[in-house]
Write a structure and sequence with these properties.
This protein is α/β, with parallel strands linked by helices. The protein is built from 5 helices and 10 strands. Strands 3-2-1-4-5-6-10-8 form an 8-stranded mixed β-sheet, with helices on both faces. Strands 7-9 form a two-stranded parallel ribbon. Helix 1 crosses helix 5.
């Protein structure tokens, strides 16, 4: 399988690249800054390219010949609007191309178990995270309207951070997943596994799913 990874030098994207190579896939890693891609592992199956996910022409040109594009772009604080622009570029660039899109989104729009409200509406939701939460909601609304792209939207748990690669996770749809102690978390390593599992065996075409322990 030929996998294209946008945001390939970020916390999620770099782990997706590593996992895809380990599974024997041919990988094209894309970043807006070509020099940052030098940190990825050298492999004859890895191709590095400069590109901007918000540019439909870049998306169309770089995606040609691939089976799936995984977007793990994440804007810096204060630049949250870039997330929506990237979603627009990806949708337009992949339109009717036959290349599937797996888009990493946010958790704030998921429903909290035992309630009828979303995570972002919880009283203790950090104000600092509200701009990215709103951008993720707009990102999801945009991709849901794309009826000519085979998209999948993946919401992480409330806490996603580097950790142990266990190879295990649970899946849900619109509700935040929590463990026996009420915590919603997953390592980025296991999140990358979930993304590649969906890439290899699509289960959620034109749907959102979420993961957690």
């Amino acid at each position: 399988m030929r996998v294209l990874v946008w945001g390939a030098t970020g916390a999620v994207g770099s782990r997706v690249v590593h996992d895809a190579l380990a599974r024997g896939h041919e990988v094209t890693a894309v970043s807006r800054t070509l020099s940052r891609l030098a940190t990825l592992p050298a492999s004859p199956a890895l191709h590095i390219r400069r590109g901007d996910a918000s540019d439909p022409d870049d998306v169309a040109a770089l995606s040609a010949g691939h089976d799936v594009a995984i977007s793990a772009t994440r804007p810096q604080p204060g630049q949250e609007a870039e997330l929506v622009q990237a979603a627009k570029g990806l949708v337009i660039g992949l339109r009717s191309s036959g290349v599937r899109l797996i888009l990493v989104g946010g958790a704030a729009g998921l429903i909290v178990p035992g309630t009828n409200h979303m995570l972002e509406d919880a009283p203790d939701f950090p104000a600092l995270l509200r701009p990215i939460a709103l951008a993720c909601n707009e990102q999801f609304a945009l991709v849901r309207e794309a009826d000519d792209v085979d998209w999948t939207y993946v919401s992480p748990p409330a806490l996603l951070e580097p950790g142990t690669r266990t190879g295990t996770y649970r899946k849900g749809t619109d509700h935040l997943l929590t463990d026996a102690h009420g915590n919603s978390h997953l390592s980025i390593e296991d999140f990358a596994i979930a993304l590649l599992d969906e890439a290899e065996q699509p289960q959620h075409i034109r749907h959102r799913f979420t993961v957690g322990y």
